[in-house]
Amino acid sequence: MPLTIINANVLNEDGQLELKTITIENGLIKQLADASTGLAPESGEIIDAGGKLVTPGFIDMHVHLREPGFEHKETIATGSLSAAKGGFTTIACMPNTRPVTDDPETVKLVLQKAEEAGLVNVLPYAAITVNELGRELTDFAALKEAGAIGFTDDGVGVQSAQMMKDAMKQAAALGMPVIAHCEDNSLVEGAPVAEGEFARRHGLKGIPNESEAIHVGRDILLAEATGVHYHVCHVSTEQSIRLIRQAKEIGIGVTAEVCPHHLLLSDEDIPGLDANWKMNPPLRSPRDVEACIAAIEDGTIDIIVTDHAPHSEEEKAKGMQLAPFGIVGFETAFPLLYTKFVETGRWTLAKLVQRMTADPARVFGLGSGKLAEGAPADLTIVDLKTEKTVDPATFASKGRNTPFAGWSLKGWPVATITGGRVVWAEENLLN
Ligand code: DOR
Ligand code: ZN
Ligand code: ZN
Fold this sequence. Notes:
Blueprint: E1 3-11, E2 17-25, E3 28-34, E4 45-48, E5 53-56, E6 58-63, H1 76-85, E7 88-93, H2 104-117, E8 121-124, H3 140-146, H4 161-174, E9 178-180, E10 193-194, H5 197-201, E11 206-207, H6 210-226, E12 230-232, H7 238-249, E13 254-258, H8 260-264, H9 286-298, E14 303-304, H10 313-316, H11 333-342, H12 349-356, H13 358-364, E15 379-383, E16 388-389, E17 408-409, E18 412-418, E19 421-425
Parallel strand pairs: 1-4, 6-7, 7-8, 9-12, 10-11, 12-13, 13-14
Antiparallel strand pairs: 1-2, 2-3, 5-15, 15-18, 16-17, 18-19
Helix pairs in contact: 1-2, 2-3, 4-6, 6-7
Bound molecules: (4S)-2,6-dioxohexahydropyrimidine-4-carboxylic acid (DOR) and zinc ion (2 copies).
């Protein structure tokens, strides 16, 4: 059935807002017309956006959906709904499931479950090594054939340079990207938080910045040697950024991502031994936070991702040392960034939206991420005015593990449209 969105405030190419009428048919944007000249629809459903912002659906290239194997933390269905509620229409899920997504059957299972959930586009990554153990490469060609969009051992770093080089050679031959969780285990050894003031005060071992940057530097050299598209996960240190900036300057095929929490929080903000503040990479120094912000501003870091990593309350209650790393991200990402960077005047709205739509589409060669005639009708309607408090009890995700509970934010998604279908909406919007 055709769908028309009237009174949609849309960002134009100059980053200005314009009132538009958006006509959707067969899952595609059929027409984007000035609200004054747009024809009243003859048939189908009408949504009155009432002057709210309408953007391309957000794209999150780094998420954990936990299925198969850890369904008590999240399922593909609950994760998809949480994503939709956060305004995301495309998400790329990490292979550190149980079994690990390291064979074609598991890739197909993930795609099938995503199809059954039917809410957002789910793009599966496959593991670089069997079981993510770093010992033996997976069958890249078969995984690509099954539908994997890239290779990563996210959750752990690939410790052997030779293994990484072989992976990059194979991925390059297939025209596929390698996505890297950068962490040298020999420098980490069970530390739960970043090296620094917080670790010292609480007598905890610290994760040093070099544990990330050493892998970034190593992999940039390997990417140069192999010609692969190398994408750096969740950049969190000044040193990694310096290396990525240099690599880009000399034309090496590297791209990078950063998470909202690494743009908004430092280790100095951690209130105490609460594992809702524990994630990997950890919250670093204010200096690193400032470097991350500067890097997403100047394009050294290309995109923003959530690293949505749900865990159960029991697991997170084990304390800073023993609880697993990770925080949920879908349902707070846009309001956090809008409130803290756009409302404050540091970023334009257009820049924030670009880093969550057009840029991930460009980096990973997706057809979505733009609001244009003929593009997929993946759209998000956002209320930029209403202020609400983050309440984990209202999350669609099974995970409640967030350090942002109680934050008062604006910029809440109110409806999400994937492939021309309304997959989630605030109750009062559609009637
Ligand atoms: O915080 C994290 N959580 N970092 C990771 O690398 C893995 C992830 C998870 O799977 O929970
Ligand atoms: Zn990771
Ligand atoms: Zn991750």
